[in-house]
Amino acid sequence: MARQEDGRLILEKPENIRQRLKTRFAHIQKSISLTDELIAERRRNAPPHILD
């Protein structure tokens, strides 16, 4: 995988990215759906006419 950081191109193995993400979100309970949380947050912040 490639990404840009501070004007540099960073190449990173996919398994390193997966491990970093697992570590980053390890504190979140398995019973919580981040997808559902994001959708709920977006709905709370949407203008009222969008939800009709």
Outline:
The chain has 52 residues and is an alpha+beta fold. It is built from 3 helices and 2 strands. The model has no long low-confidence stretch (mean pLDDT 91).
Secondary structure blueprint with pairings:
Layout: E1 2-5, E2 8-11, H1 14-24, H2 34-45, H3 48-51
Antiparallel strand pairs: 1-2
Radius of gyration: 17 Å
Summarize the main sheet: 2 strands, antiparallel
Shape: flat
Strands of the widest sheet, in order across it, are 1-2
Can you walk me through this structure?
The chain has 52 residues and is α+β, with helices and mostly antiparallel strands. The chain has one domain. The protein has three helices and two strands. It has a two-stranded antiparallel ribbon. The longest helix has 12 residues, at 34-45. The radius of gyration is 17 Å and the shape is flat. The mean pLDDT is 91.
What would the keywords be for this entry?
52 residues, alpha+beta, two-stranded antiparallel ribbon, 2 strands, 15% strand, flat
